[in-house]
Design goal:
mainly alpha, about 75% helix, about 0% strand, globular
């Protein structure tokens, strides 16, 4: 009951927010929603399946460039380009996940690191320069508001991202809460026992990587539309590290942890720059150290402890 009430209140605030905040804050909230989708995809891979990836900025870039090429070069509508970006990233995740089956732990992390480092350089390659715009990147336009709705473009795009996020989170919750989710956790915790029980560990790992890349690709597509610009240097290795930070701070292996992590990586750097103009990243790093020390299970773990203490379940 408490979770339903909390979700209802949070949804109500999300629906009201773009009408009571400034245009910049609406943009900031939209970015947080997009980041939450990306973090959910990474959390499915790392938190539920135990595969370490520090290269999801590459899939984010693939999703962003897919929607940019389809809308700018081919003139396709966004409602076709965004799902297509997810499909392309799902295929890319499967293709990368197949050879990565032989890797695990630090070796898989190193492979994904190589992917993240190589992607910006690949986007600048002269043979695909006519499609990607090379180092200059590409500019996009925000979608027009249809049906004479009483919204500006920023508000309309906010609600589009919110609707996509609600669908993605509902699908993700059903995925990790069902048979496939239990197989993911089994492969993460006891791979030998899972294989002995008939779980196809290779298939589970590969499909999980594909689903994770799909989520990140959809986030990248929406992020490109929100920013109205894509360039190779926007998808560096630092973006992958930011996603990992969001997972750790929000709470690995939890659905709500993606939301908490997105709020953290979306707001804390901005607050740090306002507090200290001289060394904002030093303040941000200190904040990370404090959060990891005080909240080893993430924000989700702290909220769960508080709920258990002050709202204990009554037994019959």
């Amino acid at each position: 009951m408490a979770r339903r009430i909390g979700f209802t209140v949070l949804l109500a605030l999300a629906l009201i927010a773009p009408f009571v905040v400034s245009g910049y804050r609406t943009f900031e909230l939209t970015t947080i929603i997009v980041d939450a989708i990306a973090l959910l995809g990474l959390n499915i891979l790392m938190g539920y399946n135990g595969q370490i990836s520090i290269g999801h900025s590459a899939f984010y870039a693939i999703g962003a460039y897919t929607v940019a090429i389809m809308t700018v070069r081919f003139g396709l509508p966004y409602w076709i380009a965004v799902p297509s970006a997810g499909a392309v990233c799902f295929a890319a995740g499967i293709l990368f996940g197949l050879p990565a089956l032989r890797l695990g732990g630090s070796h898989l992390a190193l492979a994904t690191f190589a992917l993240a480092v190589a992607m910006p350089q690949l986007l600048k390659y002269k043979l695909i320069d006519p499609w990607t715009g090379g180092t200059l990147g590409m500019s996009l336009k925000k979608p027009d508001v249809p049906w004479d709705l009483p919204l500006n473009r920023d508000q309309f795009l906010y609600f589009i991202c919110l609707a996509v996020a609600l669908v993605m989170f509902a699908v993700g919750r059903n995925l990790v809460g069902g048979r496939i989710g239990r197989a993911m956790v089994a492969v993460r915790d006891q791979p030998i026992a899972a294989a002995a029980m008939g779980v196809d560990t290779a298939m589970v790992k590969t499909k999980t990587f594909g689903v994770s890349a799909l989520y990140t690709g959809v986030a990248g597509a929406l992020g490109a539309i929100v920013a109205q610009y894509v360039a190779p240097d926007s998808f560096t290795f630092l973006l992958s590290i930011t996603f990992v930070v969001g997972i750790v701070i929000g709470g690995a292996g939890t659905i709500s942890g993606a939301i908490y992590g997105a709020i953290f990586i979306g707001l804390v750097p901005d607050f740090a720059s306002k507090i200290s103009k001289a060394a904002p990243w030093a303040l941000y790093g200190a904040c990370l150290i404090v959060c990891v020390y005080l909240m080893p299970t993430g924000i989700h773990g702290v909220i769960r402890l508080v709920r258990a203490k002050f709202m204990p379940t009554t037994s019959r």
